[in-house]
Input
Amino acid sequence: MIDKNSPTWQSIEKFIKEKREAAVSSLISDNKCEQQRGALKLLEELEELGSPKPSNMNTPSVNY
Output
């Protein structure tokens, strides 16, 4: 589990914000669009590491 309050994660969030702003700026100026879209997707996936998704393993199955 990632501690979103840790200095390391705070640095990662700052990195994500800076890189996202640069990628969006390049995308708006129509500079290497496909690369920028890929970078944005990767940054989004990195950011999602701080938001764990619910696990289906703890969910009881229901049989009808």
